């Protein structure tokens, strides 16, 4: 591996190269993490959207949220009709959620709580769970009682699904500001490939986490308070 290749490989921003039929020719390590969350066709379409009108390179400043990532710019380059290259620039985004209540929290193993909720769900429902955990996440402080109740309600909303994926990951480049202190975010994502009704999921205004949902998944974002 040449110096240039190694330098690109170590870049903390995703770098990808596509063929004209959307196949990946090259992706650095950071891009491979991104591809675990996003279909390559979506990234290829993104490259086409921001590609220059003629051969060469073009950088566009954007405000783009994709899964756990936030990007502030994208560079797209092509010198022929066979290949197109793209680099996404990650933003160190800070969320401000002053309403989060972090008073009644205790050091807890989040994996144990999620596994407990999965076991409870398996007793009631015939669901095949796939777990994707980041083992580097340490024990941290959270409101275990409210968290486990919310998890049980979420899994209940997935009760008619055959396959459910549960991921616990550190959100890349995103933080939350509470009482003038900045914390990294841990995201618990529960998803299925079919639509569900999450209208019954309600969190208190003074909850210790952020709950969001779309048609196929629910995210719980928690501040990483050690």
Order of helices and strands: HEEHHEEEEEHEEHEEEE
Alpha carbon gap, first and last residue: 39 Å
Number of strands: 13
Which stretches are poorly predicted, pLDDT < 50 over at least 5 residues?
none
What's the story with the biggest beta sheet?
6 strands, mixed
Instruction: Report strand %.
Output: 35-45%
Average pLDDT figure: 86
Helical coverage, percent range: 10-25%
Shape: globular
Number of helices: 5
Overall SS class: alpha+beta
| Rg (CA only) | 20 Å
Q: Main attributes?
A:
single chain; 226 residues; alpha+beta; six-stranded mixed β-sheet; five-stranded antiparallel β-sheet; 5 helices; 23% helix; 41% strand
Give the secondary structure arrangement, pairings included.
Layout: H1 3-9, E1 15-19, E2 24-27, H2 29-35, H3 40-49, E3 56-66, E4 69-78, E5 83-90, E6 93-96, E7 106-108, H4 110-124, E8 128-133, E9 140-142, H5 144-157, E10 163-178, E11 181-191, E12 210-213, E13 217-223
Helix pairs in contact: 4-5
Structure description:
This protein is α+β, with helices and mostly antiparallel strands and 226 residues long. It contains five helices and 13 strands. Strands 6, 8, 10, 11, 12 and 13 form a six-stranded mixed β-sheet that branches. A five-stranded antiparallel β-sheet has the order 2-1-5-4-3, covered by helices on one side. Strand 4 (69-78) and strand 5 (83-90) form a beta hairpin. Helix 4 runs parallel beside helix 5. It is globular. The model has no long low-confidence stretch (mean pLDDT 86).
């Amino acid at each position: 591996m040449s110096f240039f290749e190694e330098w690109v490989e170590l870049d903390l921003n995703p770098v990808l190269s596509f063929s004209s039929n959307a196949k990946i020719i090259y992706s650095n390590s950071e891009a491979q993490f991104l591809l675990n969350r996003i279909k390559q066709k979506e990234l290829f379409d993104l490259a086409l959207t921001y590609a220059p009108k003629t051969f060469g390179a073009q950088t566009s400043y954007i405000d783009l949220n994709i899964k756990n990532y936030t990007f502030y710019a994208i560079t797209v380059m092509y010198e022929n009709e066979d290949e197109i290259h793209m680099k996404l620039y990650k933003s160190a985004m800070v969320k401000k959620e002053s309403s989060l209540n972090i008073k009644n929290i205790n050091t807890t193993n989040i994996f144990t709580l999620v596994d407990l909720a999965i076991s409870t769900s398996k007793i009631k429902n015939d669901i095949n769970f796939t777990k994707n955990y980041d083992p580097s996440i340490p024990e941290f402080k959270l409101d275990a009682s409210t968290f486990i109740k919310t998890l049980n309600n979420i899994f209940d909303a997935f009760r008619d699904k055959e396959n459910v994926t549960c991921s616990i990951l550190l959100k890349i480049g995103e933080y939350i500001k509470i009482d003038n202190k900045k914390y990294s975010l841990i995201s618990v994502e529960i998803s299925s490939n079919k639509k569900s009704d999450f209208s019954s999921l309600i969190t208190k205004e003074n909850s210790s986490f952020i709950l969001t949902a779309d048609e196929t998944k629910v995210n719980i974002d928690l501040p990483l308070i050690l």
